[in-house]
Amino acid sequence: MSYIVSGDKPKDCIFCRPVPEEMLHRGDHAYVILNAYPYNPGHLMVIPFRHVGSLAALQEAEAAEIMDITRRCIRVLERAMSPNGLNIGVNEGEAAGAGIAGHVHQHVVPRWVGDTNFMTSVGHAKVLPEMVTETFAKLAPLFAEEWR
Q1: Is 105 an active-site residue?
Q2: Do strands 85-89 and 44-48 pair parallel, antiparallel, or not at all (unpaired)?
């Protein structure tokens, strides 16, 4: 909450200065992190290193790697969390809901039957059963295995 209500947000792009310790995977053109404000536990983001605002502006190698990484993220999430489904997508531009509109990124969100309940619709709050740090500890070794 302190970040959301704070007026002290970084002026530069947070995706352009990734923290290596927060990366689950580092590729040649893109990397994977957990969303700091997840919709569900295991909510991943696949982000190109290059600051680019749309999928159409990606170079072929960047686009290919992002798709390969996304496929591997799915395998890791299926092994670690056994979701009933996944939402995979990109919100391009502020009007589409992109939180960081100038730096395209792909979301991979595990879903379970019943993961949306009255808290979201009536209470305007999301309940997460696992801390982001716990999810990271669970996923990190599986990401290392996936790229062996």
Answers
A1: yes
A2: unpaired
